[in-house]
Amino acid sequence: MKIKVNKINSANAEIEAEISKETINSKLEKIAKELTKTASVQGFRKGKVPVAVVKKQYGERLIQDAESEALRDVLNRGLDELEVAMSALIGEPNISKFNKSDDKIEATVKVAMRPQINLENYIEMVEEFDKPVITDKEVDERIEKIADSQAKFVDLKRKRAAKDGDSVTIDFEGSIDGELFEGGAAKEFALVLGSGQFIPGFEDQIIGMKIGEEKVVKVTFPENYGSDKLAGKDAEFKVTLHNIQEKEKVEIDDAFAEKLLAGQDDKSLENLKAQVKAQLENEAIGKLYNDELKPALLETFVANINFDLPQFVVDQEIDVALNKKAGTMSEDEIKELREDAAKLEALRESFREEAERSVKATFIIDALATAENIKVDENEVMQIVYYEAMQMGQDPKEAYDKYKEAGYLPAIQMSMVEDKVLSQILNSKMKEV
Protein backbone atom coordinates (compact mmCIF):
# COMPACT_ATOMS: atom_id res chain seq x y z
CA MET A 1 0.00 0.00 0.00
CA LYS A 2 1.40 3.39 -1.06
CA ILE A 3 0.46 6.47 0.96
CA LYS A 4 1.00 10.15 0.11
CA VAL A 5 -0.24 12.96 2.35
CA ASN A 6 -0.86 16.61 1.51
CA LYS A 7 -1.51 19.02 4.38
CA ILE A 8 -3.35 21.81 2.56
CA ASN A 9 -3.46 24.01 5.67
CA SER A 10 -3.93 23.65 9.42
CA ALA A 11 -7.60 22.65 8.97
CA ASN A 12 -7.59 20.55 5.77
CA ALA A 13 -5.56 17.64 4.42
CA GLU A 14 -5.70 14.94 1.74
CA ILE A 15 -4.46 11.37 1.92
CA GLU A 16 -3.81 9.70 -1.43
CA ALA A 17 -3.42 5.93 -1.50
CA GLU A 18 -2.77 3.12 -3.94
CA ILE A 19 -4.14 -0.15 -2.54
CA SER A 20 -2.94 -3.30 -4.34
CA LYS A 21 -5.22 -6.21 -5.18
CA GLU A 22 -3.00 -8.41 -2.97
CA THR A 23 -3.79 -6.18 0.03
CA ILE A 24 -7.55 -6.51 -0.59
CA ASN A 25 -7.28 -10.29 -1.09
CA SER A 26 -5.27 -10.66 2.11
CA LYS A 27 -7.86 -8.73 4.11
CA LEU A 28 -10.70 -10.66 2.46
CA GLU A 29 -9.02 -13.95 3.45
CA LYS A 30 -8.64 -12.80 7.05
CA ILE A 31 -12.26 -11.60 7.30
CA ALA A 32 -13.55 -14.84 5.74
CA LYS A 33 -11.60 -16.95 8.28
CA GLU A 34 -13.04 -14.89 11.14
CA LEU A 35 -16.52 -15.35 9.71
CA THR A 36 -16.21 -19.16 9.64
CA LYS A 37 -16.42 -19.06 13.46
CA THR A 38 -19.85 -17.41 13.54
CA ALA A 39 -21.45 -17.98 10.11
CA SER A 40 -24.63 -20.06 9.86
CA VAL A 41 -24.72 -22.05 6.62
CA GLN A 42 -27.19 -24.87 5.99
CA GLY A 43 -25.51 -28.27 6.04
CA PHE A 44 -22.59 -27.21 8.24
CA ARG A 45 -22.18 -27.02 11.99
CA LYS A 46 -21.55 -23.58 13.45
CA GLY A 47 -17.81 -22.93 13.58
CA LYS A 48 -17.09 -25.67 11.01
CA VAL A 49 -17.99 -23.81 7.80
CA PRO A 50 -15.14 -24.01 5.21
CA VAL A 51 -13.59 -20.72 4.07
CA ALA A 52 -14.50 -21.45 0.44
CA VAL A 53 -18.17 -21.82 1.40
CA VAL A 54 -18.10 -18.55 3.38
CA LYS A 55 -16.56 -16.77 0.37
CA LYS A 56 -19.28 -18.10 -1.92
CA GLN A 57 -22.08 -17.27 0.55
CA TYR A 58 -20.89 -13.73 1.42
CA GLY A 59 -18.84 -12.86 -1.69
CA GLU A 60 -19.76 -9.20 -2.37
CA ARG A 61 -20.11 -8.32 1.31
CA LEU A 62 -16.61 -9.70 2.02
CA ILE A 63 -15.14 -7.58 -0.76
CA GLN A 64 -16.83 -4.45 0.62
CA ASP A 65 -15.63 -5.24 4.16
CA ALA A 66 -12.07 -5.81 2.91
CA GLU A 67 -12.11 -2.49 1.00
CA SER A 68 -13.52 -0.66 4.05
CA GLU A 69 -10.80 -2.09 6.28
CA ALA A 70 -8.15 -1.07 3.75
CA LEU A 71 -9.54 2.48 3.71
CA ARG A 72 -9.40 2.57 7.52
CA ASP A 73 -5.74 1.60 7.27
CA VAL A 74 -5.24 4.41 4.74
CA LEU A 75 -6.80 6.89 7.14
CA ASN A 76 -4.81 5.70 10.16
CA ARG A 77 -1.49 5.66 8.34
CA GLY A 78 -2.20 9.01 6.71
CA LEU A 79 -3.06 10.63 10.07
CA ASP A 80 0.14 9.21 11.55
CA GLU A 81 2.17 10.81 8.77
CA LEU A 82 0.27 14.07 9.18
CA GLU A 83 0.81 13.84 12.94
CA VAL A 84 -2.91 14.45 13.51
CA ALA A 85 -4.87 12.65 16.24
CA MET A 86 -8.20 11.04 15.30
CA SER A 87 -9.85 13.14 18.04
CA ALA A 88 -8.77 16.32 16.24
CA LEU A 89 -10.91 15.50 13.17
CA ILE A 90 -14.21 17.25 12.52
CA GLY A 91 -16.93 15.24 10.85
CA GLU A 92 -16.43 12.07 8.84
CA PRO A 93 -13.49 11.73 6.42
CA ASN A 94 -14.64 12.23 2.83
CA ILE A 95 -13.64 9.73 0.15
CA SER A 96 -13.36 12.09 -2.82
CA LYS A 97 -11.82 9.52 -5.19
CA PHE A 98 -12.25 5.74 -5.37
CA ASN A 99 -11.12 4.21 -8.67
CA LYS A 100 -11.01 0.41 -8.94
CA SER A 101 -9.08 -1.44 -11.61
CA ASP A 102 -8.09 -5.11 -12.01
CA ASP A 103 -4.89 -4.82 -9.98
CA LYS A 104 -5.40 -1.87 -7.58
CA ILE A 105 -7.62 0.80 -6.02
CA GLU A 106 -6.68 4.47 -6.21
CA ALA A 107 -8.31 6.45 -3.40
CA THR A 108 -8.19 9.97 -1.99
CA VAL A 109 -9.48 10.72 1.50
CA LYS A 110 -10.12 14.31 2.55
CA VAL A 111 -10.01 15.11 6.27
CA ALA A 112 -10.82 18.26 8.23
CA MET A 113 -9.28 19.22 11.56
CA ARG A 114 -10.51 21.50 14.33
CA PRO A 115 -8.92 24.92 13.69
CA GLN A 116 -6.26 26.24 16.03
CA ILE A 117 -7.47 29.71 17.04
CA ASN A 118 -5.16 32.27 18.61
CA LEU A 119 -7.19 34.32 21.12
CA GLU A 120 -4.19 35.95 22.74
CA ASN A 121 -5.32 39.56 22.21
CA TYR A 122 -9.10 39.25 21.94
CA ILE A 123 -9.84 41.42 25.00
CA GLU A 124 -7.78 44.26 23.49
CA MET A 125 -10.14 44.25 20.49
CA VAL A 126 -13.05 45.30 22.74
CA GLU A 127 -13.46 49.01 23.36
CA GLU A 128 -14.67 50.41 26.66
CA PHE A 129 -18.12 52.00 26.70
CA ASP A 130 -20.28 53.94 29.16
CA LYS A 131 -23.01 52.23 31.11
CA PRO A 132 -26.44 53.62 30.08
CA VAL A 133 -27.64 56.36 32.43
CA ILE A 134 -31.23 56.22 33.71
CA THR A 135 -32.73 59.55 34.82
CA ASP A 136 -35.11 60.11 37.73
CA LYS A 137 -37.72 61.21 35.17
CA GLU A 138 -37.54 57.81 33.42
CA VAL A 139 -37.94 56.03 36.77
CA ASP A 140 -40.98 58.16 37.65
CA GLU A 141 -42.54 57.55 34.23
CA ARG A 142 -42.14 53.78 34.58
CA ILE A 143 -43.66 53.78 38.10
CA GLU A 144 -46.55 55.89 36.78
CA LYS A 145 -47.13 53.28 34.07
CA ILE A 146 -47.15 50.52 36.69
CA ALA A 147 -49.63 52.52 38.77
CA ASP A 148 -51.78 53.11 35.69
CA SER A 149 -51.81 49.39 34.86
CA GLN A 150 -53.09 48.61 38.36
CA ALA A 151 -55.72 51.35 38.41
CA LYS A 152 -59.38 50.28 38.38
CA PHE A 153 -62.04 51.64 36.06
CA VAL A 154 -64.85 53.49 37.87
CA ASP A 155 -67.97 55.30 36.69
CA LEU A 156 -67.58 58.98 35.86
CA LYS A 157 -68.07 61.37 38.78
CA ARG A 158 -69.43 63.95 36.32
CA LYS A 159 -70.83 63.54 32.85
CA ARG A 160 -68.42 64.11 29.95
CA ALA A 161 -67.55 62.79 26.51
CA ALA A 162 -65.41 59.65 26.07
CA LYS A 163 -61.67 60.21 25.74
CA ASP A 164 -58.56 58.17 25.05
CA GLY A 165 -57.89 55.69 27.88
CA ASP A 166 -61.54 55.41 28.98
CA SER A 167 -63.41 52.11 29.11
CA VAL A 168 -66.69 52.35 27.22
CA THR A 169 -69.62 49.93 27.00
CA ILE A 170 -71.10 49.84 23.50
CA ASP A 171 -73.47 48.02 21.20
CA PHE A 172 -72.31 47.81 17.60
CA GLU A 173 -73.59 46.36 14.36
CA GLY A 174 -71.40 46.22 11.25
CA SER A 175 -72.44 46.12 7.60
CA ILE A 176 -70.80 46.18 4.16
CA ASP A 177 -72.85 47.68 1.31
CA GLY A 178 -75.85 47.63 3.62
CA GLU A 179 -75.57 43.91 4.47
CA LEU A 180 -74.69 42.68 7.98
CA PHE A 181 -71.68 40.38 8.16
CA GLU A 182 -70.91 37.50 10.49
CA GLY A 183 -69.06 38.44 13.69
CA GLY A 184 -69.70 42.15 13.17
CA ALA A 185 -72.14 42.75 16.01
CA ALA A 186 -72.12 42.66 19.82
CA LYS A 187 -74.12 43.96 22.81
CA GLU A 188 -72.72 45.56 25.98
CA PHE A 189 -69.16 45.23 24.69
CA ALA A 190 -66.43 46.68 26.96
CA LEU A 191 -63.73 48.49 25.00
CA VAL A 192 -60.73 50.46 26.29
CA LEU A 193 -60.19 53.35 23.89
CA GLY A 194 -56.64 53.45 22.57
CA SER A 195 -56.05 49.74 23.20
CA GLY A 196 -56.00 48.94 19.47
CA GLN A 197 -58.44 46.07 20.02
CA PHE A 198 -60.54 47.11 17.01
CA ILE A 199 -59.42 47.81 13.45
CA PRO A 200 -57.68 51.18 12.83
CA GLY A 201 -60.01 54.16 12.91
CA PHE A 202 -62.83 52.56 14.93
CA GLU A 203 -61.75 53.57 18.43
CA ASP A 204 -60.74 57.09 17.32
CA GLN A 205 -64.33 57.76 16.23
CA ILE A 206 -65.75 56.66 19.60
CA ILE A 207 -63.71 59.39 21.30
CA GLY A 208 -66.03 62.39 21.85
CA MET A 209 -69.25 60.35 22.10
CA LYS A 210 -71.46 60.78 25.15
CA ILE A 211 -73.53 58.29 27.14
CA GLY A 212 -76.70 57.38 25.23
CA GLU A 213 -75.37 58.71 21.92
CA GLU A 214 -75.67 56.75 18.67
CA LYS A 215 -73.22 57.13 15.79
CA VAL A 216 -72.29 55.52 12.47
CA VAL A 217 -68.56 54.69 12.43
CA LYS A 218 -67.00 54.31 8.98
CA VAL A 219 -63.82 52.21 8.61
CA THR A 220 -61.86 50.22 6.02
CA PHE A 221 -60.65 46.73 6.88
CA PRO A 222 -56.87 46.29 6.37
CA GLU A 223 -55.74 44.49 3.20
CA ASN A 224 -54.04 41.82 5.35
CA TYR A 225 -57.11 41.23 7.55
CA GLY A 226 -57.63 37.60 8.58
CA SER A 227 -60.93 37.17 6.67
CA ASP A 228 -60.78 37.32 2.87
CA LYS A 229 -64.45 38.41 2.82
CA LEU A 230 -63.61 41.52 4.85
CA ALA A 231 -60.03 42.36 3.84
CA GLY A 232 -59.81 45.76 2.13
CA LYS A 233 -63.59 46.36 2.36
CA ASP A 234 -65.27 49.60 3.48
CA ALA A 235 -67.66 49.01 6.38
CA GLU A 236 -70.12 50.93 8.56
CA PHE A 237 -70.79 50.22 12.24
CA LYS A 238 -73.89 51.50 13.98
CA VAL A 239 -72.65 52.20 17.52
CA THR A 240 -74.58 53.00 20.70
CA LEU A 241 -72.58 54.10 23.73
CA HIS A 242 -74.11 53.00 27.07
CA ASN A 243 -71.50 53.86 29.66
CA ILE A 244 -68.10 55.51 30.19
CA GLN A 245 -65.63 54.62 32.93
CA GLU A 246 -62.36 56.34 33.76
CA LYS A 247 -59.31 55.05 35.59
CA GLU A 248 -59.18 55.83 39.27
CA LYS A 249 -55.93 57.63 40.08
CA VAL A 250 -53.49 55.57 42.15
CA GLU A 251 -51.39 57.53 44.61
CA ILE A 252 -47.69 56.74 44.30
CA ASP A 253 -46.55 56.56 47.91
CA ASP A 254 -45.16 54.08 50.48
CA ALA A 255 -48.54 52.30 50.62
CA PHE A 256 -48.39 51.72 46.85
CA ALA A 257 -44.78 50.52 47.13
CA GLU A 258 -45.72 48.16 49.97
CA LYS A 259 -48.23 46.36 47.71
CA LEU A 260 -45.64 45.90 44.95
CA LEU A 261 -42.82 44.85 47.29
CA ALA A 262 -44.84 42.34 49.32
CA GLY A 263 -42.53 39.73 50.81
CA GLN A 264 -39.49 42.01 50.82
CA ASP A 265 -37.96 43.49 53.97
CA ASP A 266 -37.72 47.02 52.62
CA LYS A 267 -41.13 48.04 51.25
CA SER A 268 -40.41 51.76 50.90
CA LEU A 269 -41.04 53.91 47.83
CA GLU A 270 -37.31 54.65 47.77
CA ASN A 271 -36.54 50.93 47.42
CA LEU A 272 -39.18 50.59 44.71
CA LYS A 273 -37.53 53.41 42.76
CA ALA A 274 -34.10 51.75 43.17
CA GLN A 275 -35.45 48.44 41.83
CA VAL A 276 -37.23 50.10 38.91
CA LYS A 277 -34.02 52.00 38.08
CA ALA A 278 -32.05 48.71 38.08
CA GLN A 279 -34.67 47.14 35.81
CA LEU A 280 -34.52 50.09 33.39
CA GLU A 281 -30.72 49.88 33.39
CA ASN A 282 -30.88 46.17 32.51
CA GLU A 283 -33.37 46.89 29.73
CA ALA A 284 -31.19 49.68 28.36
CA ILE A 285 -28.06 47.51 28.52
CA GLY A 286 -29.91 44.64 26.82
CA LYS A 287 -31.11 46.90 24.02
CA LEU A 288 -27.63 48.44 23.58
CA TYR A 289 -26.02 44.99 23.53
CA ASN A 290 -28.51 43.36 21.14
CA ASP A 291 -29.01 46.28 18.74
CA GLU A 292 -25.44 47.57 18.53
CA LEU A 293 -22.57 46.18 20.59
CA LYS A 294 -22.94 42.41 20.18
CA PRO A 295 -23.26 42.41 16.36
CA ALA A 296 -20.38 44.93 16.10
CA LEU A 297 -18.19 42.93 18.50
CA LEU A 298 -18.72 39.68 16.61
CA GLU A 299 -17.86 41.42 13.34
CA THR A 300 -14.68 42.76 14.99
CA PHE A 301 -13.65 39.26 16.06
CA VAL A 302 -14.45 37.80 12.61
CA ALA A 303 -12.41 40.53 10.89
CA ASN A 304 -9.38 40.32 13.19
CA ILE A 305 -9.08 36.69 14.32
CA ASN A 306 -7.78 34.69 11.37
CA PHE A 307 -7.41 30.92 10.98
CA ASP A 308 -7.97 28.17 8.43
CA LEU A 309 -11.53 26.89 8.01
CA PRO A 310 -12.45 23.20 7.53
CA GLN A 311 -13.64 23.17 3.92
CA PHE A 312 -16.35 20.56 4.34
CA VAL A 313 -18.02 22.65 7.09
CA VAL A 314 -18.08 25.65 4.73
CA ASP A 315 -19.52 23.44 1.98
CA GLN A 316 -22.26 22.24 4.35
CA GLU A 317 -23.16 25.86 5.14
CA ILE A 318 -23.28 26.64 1.41
CA ASP A 319 -25.59 23.64 0.87
CA VAL A 320 -27.96 24.95 3.55
CA ALA A 321 -28.06 28.38 1.89
CA LEU A 322 -28.53 26.79 -1.54
CA ASN A 323 -31.43 24.63 -0.36
CA LYS A 324 -33.04 27.66 1.29
CA LYS A 325 -32.72 29.59 -1.97
CA ALA A 326 -34.16 26.65 -3.94
CA GLY A 327 -37.24 26.81 -1.73
CA THR A 328 -38.00 30.28 -3.16
CA MET A 329 -37.39 29.34 -6.81
CA SER A 330 -39.83 28.19 -9.48
CA GLU A 331 -39.70 24.71 -11.04
CA ASP A 332 -38.38 26.21 -14.27
CA GLU A 333 -35.55 27.98 -12.45
CA ILE A 334 -34.58 24.79 -10.62
CA LYS A 335 -34.70 22.81 -13.88
CA GLU A 336 -32.42 25.38 -15.52
CA LEU A 337 -29.88 24.98 -12.71
CA ARG A 338 -29.96 21.18 -12.99
CA GLU A 339 -29.24 21.40 -16.71
CA ASP A 340 -26.50 24.07 -16.40
CA ALA A 341 -23.66 22.95 -14.11
CA ALA A 342 -21.78 26.23 -14.55
CA LYS A 343 -24.79 28.29 -13.48
CA LEU A 344 -25.37 26.04 -10.44
CA GLU A 345 -21.72 26.37 -9.44
CA ALA A 346 -21.89 30.16 -9.83
CA LEU A 347 -24.94 30.24 -7.55
CA ARG A 348 -23.15 28.07 -5.00
CA GLU A 349 -20.13 30.36 -5.05
CA SER A 350 -22.34 33.40 -4.43
CA PHE A 351 -23.02 32.00 -0.94
CA ARG A 352 -19.38 31.23 -0.11
CA GLU A 353 -18.38 34.54 1.47
CA GLU A 354 -21.33 34.58 3.88
CA ALA A 355 -20.90 30.84 4.60
CA GLU A 356 -17.22 31.35 5.50
CA ARG A 357 -18.14 34.27 7.75
CA SER A 358 -20.82 32.21 9.51
CA VAL A 359 -18.51 29.20 10.02
CA LYS A 360 -15.71 31.45 11.23
CA ALA A 361 -18.02 33.17 13.73
CA THR A 362 -19.19 29.79 15.07
CA PHE A 363 -15.63 28.57 15.70
CA ILE A 364 -14.67 31.89 17.31
CA ILE A 365 -17.64 31.77 19.70
CA ASP A 366 -16.79 28.16 20.56
CA ALA A 367 -13.18 29.13 21.36
CA LEU A 368 -14.26 32.20 23.34
CA ALA A 369 -16.69 30.09 25.37
CA THR A 370 -13.75 27.93 26.46
CA ALA A 371 -11.60 30.99 27.21
CA GLU A 372 -14.40 32.66 29.19
CA ASN A 373 -15.47 29.38 30.85
CA ILE A 374 -19.03 29.67 29.50
CA LYS A 375 -21.25 26.60 29.26
CA VAL A 376 -24.94 26.06 28.49
CA ASP A 377 -26.30 22.67 29.53
CA GLU A 378 -29.40 20.87 28.26
CA ASN A 379 -31.42 21.96 31.28
CA GLU A 380 -30.84 25.65 30.44
CA VAL A 381 -31.95 25.03 26.85
CA MET A 382 -35.08 23.29 28.12
CA GLN A 383 -35.88 26.21 30.43
CA ILE A 384 -35.64 28.80 27.64
CA VAL A 385 -37.78 26.69 25.27
CA TYR A 386 -40.36 26.11 28.03
CA TYR A 387 -40.47 29.83 28.87
CA GLU A 388 -40.93 30.94 25.25
CA ALA A 389 -43.60 28.26 24.69
CA MET A 390 -45.57 29.46 27.73
CA GLN A 391 -45.27 33.07 26.53
CA MET A 392 -46.89 31.99 23.25
CA GLY A 393 -49.58 29.91 24.97
CA GLN A 394 -48.10 26.59 23.75
CA ASP A 395 -47.56 23.36 25.64
CA PRO A 396 -43.91 23.59 26.84
CA LYS A 397 -43.14 19.86 26.67
CA GLU A 398 -44.68 19.49 23.22
CA ALA A 399 -42.65 22.48 21.98
CA TYR A 400 -39.42 21.05 23.43
CA ASP A 401 -40.04 17.58 21.96
CA LYS A 402 -40.83 19.13 18.57
CA TYR A 403 -37.59 21.15 18.59
CA LYS A 404 -35.65 18.05 19.67
CA GLU A 405 -37.15 15.92 16.88
CA ALA A 406 -36.39 18.59 14.28
CA GLY A 407 -32.78 18.86 15.51
CA TYR A 408 -33.08 22.54 16.50
CA LEU A 409 -31.75 22.22 20.07
CA PRO A 410 -28.01 22.45 19.17
CA ALA A 411 -28.68 25.70 17.28
CA ILE A 412 -30.61 27.11 20.25
CA GLN A 413 -27.81 26.05 22.58
CA MET A 414 -25.18 27.69 20.35
CA SER A 415 -27.22 30.90 20.23
CA MET A 416 -27.40 30.93 24.04
CA VAL A 417 -23.64 30.35 24.29
CA GLU A 418 -23.01 33.25 21.88
CA ASP A 419 -25.28 35.53 23.90
CA LYS A 420 -23.56 34.64 27.19
CA VAL A 421 -20.02 34.91 25.78
CA LEU A 422 -20.49 38.32 24.17
CA SER A 423 -22.41 39.66 27.19
CA GLN A 424 -19.67 38.57 29.60
CA ILE A 425 -16.94 40.16 27.47
CA LEU A 426 -18.91 43.41 27.11
CA ASN A 427 -19.66 43.50 30.85
CA SER A 428 -15.93 43.58 31.53
CA LYS A 429 -15.59 46.71 29.38
CA MET A 430 -18.58 48.68 30.70
CA LYS A 431 -17.72 51.84 32.69
CA GLU A 432 -19.88 53.53 35.30
CA VAL A 433 -20.51 57.15 34.29
From TrEMBL:
Domain PPIase FKBP-type: 165-227
InterPro entries reported for this sequence: PPIase_dom_sf, PPIase_FKBP_dom, Trig_fac, Trigger_fac_C, Trigger_fac_C_sf, Trigger_fac_ribosome-bd_bac, Trigger_fac_ribosome-bd_sf, Trigger_fact/SurA_dom_sf
Keywords (A to Z) from UniProt: Cell cycle, Cell division, Chaperone, Coiled coil, Cytoplasm, Isomerase, Rotamase
Subcellular location: Cytoplasm
Catalytic activity line of the entry: [protein]-peptidylproline (omega=180) = [protein]-peptidylproline (omega=0)
Top-level class of the enzyme under EC nomenclature: isomerase
Pfam families membership: FKBP_C, Trigger_C, Trigger_N
Domain notes: Consists of 3 domains; the N-terminus binds the ribosome, the middle domain has PPIase activity, while the C-terminus has intrinsic chaperone activity on its own.
Protein family (similarity comment): Belongs to the FKBP-type PPIase family. Tig subfamily.
HAMAP family: Trigger_factor_Tig (MF_00303)
Protein function: Involved in protein export. Acts as a chaperone by maintaining the newly synthesized protein in an open conformation. Functions as a peptidyl-prolyl cis-trans isomerase.
Protein name per the record: Trigger factor
